[in-house]
Protein backbone atom coordinates (compact mmCIF):
# COMPACT_ATOMS: atom_id res chain seq x y z
CA UNK A 1 0.00 0.00 0.00
CA UNK A 2 1.05 3.58 -0.57
CA UNK A 3 2.06 5.79 2.35
CA UNK A 4 -0.85 8.24 2.09
CA UNK A 5 -3.40 5.44 1.58
CA UNK A 6 -2.12 3.57 4.63
CA UNK A 7 -2.76 6.49 6.97
CA UNK A 8 -6.11 7.35 5.40
CA UNK A 9 -7.47 3.81 5.14
CA UNK A 10 -6.47 2.87 8.69
CA UNK A 11 -8.08 6.08 9.94
CA UNK A 12 -11.41 5.50 8.21
CA UNK A 13 -11.86 1.72 7.95
CA UNK A 14 -13.47 1.11 11.38
CA UNK A 15 -16.00 3.92 10.92
CA UNK A 16 -17.02 2.75 7.45
CA UNK A 17 -17.11 -0.88 8.52
CA UNK A 18 -19.52 -0.02 11.36
CA UNK A 19 -21.47 2.40 9.13
CA UNK A 20 -21.20 5.22 11.64
CA UNK A 21 -20.29 7.75 8.94
CA UNK A 22 -21.69 8.51 5.53
CA UNK A 23 -19.24 7.97 2.64
CA UNK A 24 -18.62 11.66 1.92
CA UNK A 25 -15.04 12.07 3.07
CA UNK A 26 -12.38 14.78 3.19
CA UNK A 27 -8.75 13.77 3.78
CA UNK A 28 -6.19 16.48 4.55
CA UNK A 29 -2.64 15.08 4.69
CA UNK A 30 0.76 16.56 5.43
CA UNK A 31 4.00 14.85 4.49
CA UNK A 32 7.70 15.44 4.89
CA UNK A 33 9.96 15.83 1.87
CA UNK A 34 11.23 12.24 1.91
CA UNK A 35 7.82 11.21 0.55
CA UNK A 36 8.97 12.48 -2.83
CA UNK A 37 11.91 10.06 -2.93
CA UNK A 38 15.54 10.93 -3.57
CA UNK A 39 15.19 12.33 -7.06
CA UNK A 40 16.08 15.98 -7.50
CA UNK A 41 13.33 18.53 -8.08
CA UNK A 42 12.90 22.24 -7.50
CA UNK A 43 9.98 21.76 -5.10
CA UNK A 44 12.00 19.60 -2.69
CA UNK A 45 15.11 21.81 -2.45
CA UNK A 46 15.76 23.03 1.09
CA UNK A 47 15.42 26.68 0.07
CA UNK A 48 11.98 25.97 -1.43
CA UNK A 49 10.61 23.80 1.39
CA UNK A 50 12.08 25.53 4.44
CA UNK A 51 9.56 27.76 6.29
CA UNK A 52 6.96 26.93 3.67
CA UNK A 53 3.83 24.78 3.34
CA UNK A 54 2.26 23.94 0.00
CA UNK A 55 -0.71 21.93 -1.25
CA UNK A 56 -0.24 19.90 -4.42
CA UNK A 57 -1.99 17.45 -6.75
CA UNK A 58 -5.39 19.04 -6.18
CA UNK A 59 -6.53 17.72 -9.53
CA UNK A 60 -6.09 14.14 -8.32
CA UNK A 61 -3.16 12.56 -6.50
CA UNK A 62 -1.82 9.24 -7.81
CA UNK A 63 -2.75 7.56 -4.50
CA UNK A 64 -6.39 8.70 -4.60
CA UNK A 65 -7.62 5.70 -6.67
CA UNK A 66 -6.09 3.31 -4.12
CA UNK A 67 -7.77 5.11 -1.21
CA UNK A 68 -11.11 5.18 -3.03
CA UNK A 69 -10.89 1.54 -4.07
CA UNK A 70 -10.15 0.17 -0.59
CA UNK A 71 -12.55 2.39 1.34
CA UNK A 72 -15.33 1.57 -1.15
CA UNK A 73 -14.72 -2.14 -0.54
CA UNK A 74 -15.03 -1.62 3.20
CA UNK A 75 -18.11 0.57 2.85
CA UNK A 76 -19.79 -1.70 0.27
CA UNK A 77 -20.61 1.40 -1.76
CA UNK A 78 -18.66 3.97 -3.72
CA UNK A 79 -17.21 6.60 -1.41
CA UNK A 80 -16.82 10.24 -2.37
CA UNK A 81 -13.37 11.53 -1.38
CA UNK A 82 -11.63 14.88 -1.49
CA UNK A 83 -7.92 14.25 -0.87
CA UNK A 84 -5.51 17.18 -0.52
CA UNK A 85 -1.84 16.41 0.27
CA UNK A 86 0.54 19.07 1.59
CA UNK A 87 4.33 19.27 1.66
CA UNK A 88 5.73 20.54 4.94
CA UNK A 89 9.32 21.33 5.99
CA UNK A 90 10.30 18.15 7.82
CA UNK A 91 12.26 15.10 6.73
CA UNK A 92 9.78 12.29 7.36
CA UNK A 93 6.30 11.57 8.61
CA UNK A 94 2.67 11.83 7.48
CA UNK A 95 -0.19 13.28 9.48
CA UNK A 96 -3.69 12.92 8.03
CA UNK A 97 -6.85 14.55 9.32
CA UNK A 98 -9.97 12.87 7.95
CA UNK A 99 -13.52 14.24 8.11
CA UNK A 100 -16.86 12.51 7.46
CA UNK A 101 -20.49 13.20 8.44
CA UNK A 102 -21.73 11.02 11.30
CA UNK A 103 -24.55 8.58 10.67
CA UNK A 104 -26.46 9.42 13.86
CA UNK A 105 -28.88 6.52 13.35
CA UNK A 106 -26.05 4.11 14.15
CA UNK A 107 -24.64 6.00 17.14
CA UNK A 108 -25.55 6.38 20.83
CA UNK A 109 -26.47 9.66 22.53
CA UNK A 110 -24.09 12.53 21.88
CA UNK A 111 -22.48 12.41 25.34
CA UNK A 112 -21.52 8.77 24.67
CA UNK A 113 -20.17 9.13 21.13
CA UNK A 114 -16.53 9.80 22.06
CA UNK A 115 -16.22 6.66 24.18
CA UNK A 116 -18.11 4.69 21.54
CA UNK A 117 -15.68 5.76 18.82
CA UNK A 118 -12.71 4.77 20.97
CA UNK A 119 -14.34 1.41 21.71
CA UNK A 120 -15.05 0.68 18.02
CA UNK A 121 -11.54 1.62 16.93
CA UNK A 122 -9.80 -0.23 19.77
CA UNK A 123 -11.75 -3.42 19.07
CA UNK A 124 -11.18 -3.15 15.31
CA UNK A 125 -7.39 -3.00 15.75
CA UNK A 126 -6.89 -5.10 18.90
CA UNK A 127 -5.11 -7.84 16.91
CA UNK A 128 -2.90 -5.41 14.96
CA UNK A 129 0.47 -4.91 16.69
CA UNK A 130 1.38 -1.78 14.74
CA UNK A 131 -1.87 0.18 15.00
CA UNK A 132 -2.36 2.14 18.20
CA UNK A 133 -5.64 3.86 19.00
CA UNK A 134 -4.94 6.77 21.35
CA UNK A 135 -6.97 9.18 23.46
CA UNK A 136 -5.03 12.34 22.53
CA UNK A 137 -4.08 13.65 19.07
CA UNK A 138 -0.84 11.98 17.93
CA UNK A 139 2.17 13.77 16.49
CA UNK A 140 4.51 12.59 13.76
CA UNK A 141 7.42 12.37 16.21
CA UNK A 142 5.43 9.77 18.16
CA UNK A 143 5.91 7.33 15.24
CA UNK A 144 9.39 8.43 14.13
CA UNK A 145 11.47 5.46 12.97
CA UNK A 146 8.74 2.89 13.76
CA UNK A 147 6.27 0.75 11.84
CA UNK A 148 3.42 2.12 13.97
CA UNK A 149 0.35 4.04 12.88
CA UNK A 150 -1.31 6.04 15.65
CA UNK A 151 -5.00 6.91 15.32
CA UNK A 152 -7.17 9.34 17.26
CA UNK A 153 -10.92 9.24 16.52
CA UNK A 154 -13.13 12.07 17.75
CA UNK A 155 -16.12 14.13 16.57
CA UNK A 156 -17.33 17.70 16.27
CA UNK A 157 -20.64 18.04 18.11
CA UNK A 158 -21.48 21.34 16.36
CA UNK A 159 -21.45 19.88 12.85
CA UNK A 160 -22.02 16.18 13.65
CA UNK A 161 -18.86 15.21 11.79
CA UNK A 162 -16.30 12.62 12.75
CA UNK A 163 -12.68 13.76 12.78
CA UNK A 164 -9.93 11.12 12.76
CA UNK A 165 -6.23 11.90 12.96
CA UNK A 166 -3.63 9.35 11.94
CA UNK A 167 0.13 9.61 11.78
CA UNK A 168 2.92 7.33 10.65
CA UNK A 169 6.52 7.41 9.46
CA UNK A 170 6.32 7.32 5.68
CA UNK A 171 9.75 5.68 5.41
CA UNK A 172 8.78 2.75 7.64
CA UNK A 173 5.04 2.11 7.91
CA UNK A 174 4.58 3.94 4.65
CA UNK A 175 7.19 1.97 2.74
CA UNK A 176 9.96 -0.47 3.68
CA UNK A 177 8.62 -1.49 7.09
CA UNK A 178 5.23 -2.28 5.66
CA UNK A 179 6.85 -4.34 2.91
CA UNK A 180 8.63 -6.41 5.55
CA UNK A 181 5.38 -6.75 7.52
CA UNK A 182 3.56 -8.02 4.41
CA UNK A 183 6.39 -10.48 3.69
CA UNK A 184 6.17 -11.78 7.27
CA UNK A 185 2.45 -12.45 6.82
CA UNK A 186 2.98 -14.16 3.46
CA UNK A 187 5.63 -16.51 4.90
CA UNK A 188 3.79 -17.26 8.14
CA UNK A 189 6.24 -15.38 10.35
CA UNK A 190 5.27 -13.20 13.31
CA UNK A 191 4.22 -9.81 11.92
CA UNK A 192 6.71 -8.02 14.15
CA UNK A 193 9.79 -9.92 12.87
CA UNK A 194 12.55 -7.47 12.02
CA UNK A 195 10.35 -4.46 12.83
CA UNK A 196 10.93 -3.68 16.49
CA UNK A 197 14.15 -1.66 16.07
CA UNK A 198 14.11 2.05 15.23
CA UNK A 199 15.06 3.06 11.68
CA UNK A 200 16.21 6.66 11.76
CA UNK A 201 18.11 7.41 8.55
CA UNK A 202 17.57 9.89 7.06
Concise account of the structure shown:
The protein is an alpha/beta fold. The chain contains five helices and seven strands, in the order H-E-H-E-H-E-E-H-E-E-E-H.
Structure, described:
It is a single chain. The protein is an alpha/beta fold. It has five helices and seven strands. The protein is 29% helix and 22% strand. The chain has a seven-stranded mixed beta sheet with strand order 2-3-1-4-7-6-5. It has helices at 3-17, 46-49, 64-75, 113-124, 172-186, and strands at 24-31, 54-55, 80-87, 94-101, 131-133, 149-156, 161-168. The two termini are 21 Å apart. A hairpin with a 4-residue loop joins strand 6 and strand 7 (161-168). The radius of gyration is 17 Å and the shape is globular. Helix 1 (3-17) runs parallel beside helix 3 (64-75). The longest helix has 15 residues, at 3-17.
Write the layout of secondary structure elements.
Layout: H1 3-17, E1 24-31, H2 46-49, E2 54-55, H3 64-75, E3 80-87, E4 94-101, H4 113-124, E5 131-133, E6 149-156, E7 161-168, H5 172-186
Parallel strand pairs: 1-3, 5-6
Antiparallel strand pairs: 1-4, 2-3, 4-7, 6-7
Helix pairs in contact: 1-3
Count of β-strands: 7
Which structural class is indicated by helix and strand composition? alpha/beta
Mean pLDDT: 93
| Spans where pLDDT lies below 50 across 5 or more residues | none
Helix content: 25-40%
Computed Rg: 17 Å
Describe the sheet with the most strands: 7 strands, mixed
3D shape? globular
Q: Given the structure, what is the number of helices?
A: 5
Q: How many angstroms does the end-to-end distance come to?
A: 21 Å
Q: How are the strands ordered across the major sheet? A: 2-3-1-4-7-6-5
- Beta-strand proportion: 15-25%
List the secondary-structure elements in sequence, H or E.
HEHEHEEHEEEH
Amino acid sequence: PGCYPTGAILALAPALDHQIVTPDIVIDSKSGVSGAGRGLSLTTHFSEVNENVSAYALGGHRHLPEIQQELSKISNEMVSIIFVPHLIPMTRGILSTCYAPLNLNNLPEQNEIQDYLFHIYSNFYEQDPFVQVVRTPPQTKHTLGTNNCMIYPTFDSRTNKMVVISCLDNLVKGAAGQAVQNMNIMYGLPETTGLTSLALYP
